[in-house]
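I am still getting used to backbone structure tokens and would like to learn alongside you. To get us started, please write out a protein record for me. Once you have written the record down, we can walk along the chain together.
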Amino acid sequence: MNATISDSRVVDKVLDGERITAEDAKELYGLPLNQLGQLADHRRQRAKSEAFQGRGSEIVTYIVDRNINYTNVCNVYCKFCAFYRTERDADHYVLSHEDIDRKIDELVSIGGIQILMQGGHHPKLGIDYYLDLLNHIREKYPQVNIHAFSPPEFNHFAEVFRMPLREVILRFKEAGLGSIPGGGGEILVDQVRNRIAPLKCNTEQWLEVMRTAHDLGLNSSATMMFGHVEAVEDRIEHLARLRQLQDQTRGFTAFICWTFQPGNVVLKATPAGSAEYLRTQALSRIYLDNFENVQSSWVTQGPRIGQIALRYGANDFGSVMMEENVVSSAGTSFRITCDEIELLIAEAGFEPRTRNNWYELVD
């Protein structure tokens, strides 16, 4: 570690494993990128040192799963989204059980163990559609975890079904839901959310879904989509809200951040580049001291930056992701196989291993 950096009080806190403040985070954000990366890598090693029988710092995991967007109909019209359609659009859809079965069959054929299922805020689908779908998948594919429905969707469900949020989540869990993705977090600062997605759930509503799910025994991931209208202070506040909830529930399995994609969307902003992505991920690893796992975002950054991110705090390479529709709708599309993931991980000096949603090794 550079001598000048190691003399810094804030850097000493990071090296000693102490919790940093928002003010500390702002100071760290100004460090040279490679030095911030070294600190994040140090925190990664500390976070994983007791995992996998002492071999965690050498292991980078990934999962074989598939995204399934069950509908593209949505009535919240987020300014950063190019995926949504209205019921008036000719290319709107709602997938049938048969459509979804075909997608899961393809996943299972390559050894996949999870689906990440999300959709738009469809104003007319009732609870029976969702419960029937969950029951169907659980009965036909018991080996596949259903990682589905983001917090904004659950808020939408509670309104459309006219049911308490807790009851909705409980009934989904009883029908087969295994865990919840962290989508729709964007930036957990209402001033920002009101500018980019004014009809979507607010910060406290997003957090309440996660709090309730954790209380009911469902784990979830946490996310951040940045590089649009927010300031660095907003990103830090977002991380603070996640860390506070994780202190209370310990229900988050991992954190994933990615950059705003500008193609084909209403929101006009200069997107963050790869260096800004690596800087933000590194800071997130250091700030989120109660998150064991941080996932690299090759989906938006490309495989090579995803590989570099493994030295900027990430210990997981995400998913094979057989299908991806939302980011690609905004003009960014990368595809990658298991062999390619394992080669990228090995080239970075780590041992590739497959995992499940709870970050347990499955190979």
Remarks:
- The chain has a mean pLDDT of 88.
- The two ends are 35 Å apart (CA to CA).
- The longest helix spans residues 232-249.
- The domain at 42-354 is CATH 3.20.20.70 (TIM Barrel).
